[in-house]
From TrEMBL:
Membrane topology: Multi-pass membrane protein
Record's keyword terms, sorted: Cell membrane, Membrane, Transmembrane, Transmembrane helix
Keyword Transport: no
Pfam family name, one: DUF3817
Stated name of the protein: DUF3817 domain-containing protein
Membrane-spanning parts: 6-25, 37-55, 67-83
Subcellular location: Cell membrane
Organism: Aurantibacter aestuarii
Keyword Nucleus: no
Main location: membrane
Length: 88
């Protein structure tokens, strides 16, 4: 389960960066295709990241502050990569 969470953290961060790039492409070229393509997978990965972070809190012995940092990182570009290296 821990290995799966690390994979989810990486994929969630990657999908977030790709979605940001797709949003920029949409604004500059007027093409929504990539945003539509990446939106749902990113949403699913985001929800899985949040659920796994809460479920694995006791395993990692995180206090509430650390859990808060891990959860906030999911909405920051490159945040999950930082968490994966520092806390996982």
């Amino acid at each position: 389960m821990v290995l799966f969470f690390r994979l989810i953290a990486f994929l969630e961060g990657l999908s977030y960066l790709l979605l940001v790039a797709a949003a920029i492409y949409k604004r500059t070229h007027g093409n929504e295709y990539f945003v539509k393509l990446l939106g749902m997978p990113h949403g699913i990965l985001f929800v899985l990241y949040i659920i796994f972070a809460i479920v694995l809190k006791p395993h990692y012995k995180w206090d509430s502050k650390t859990l808060g940092i891990v959860l906030i990182a999911s909405v920051l570009p490159f945040g999950t990569f930082y968490i994966e290296k520092k806390y996982l």
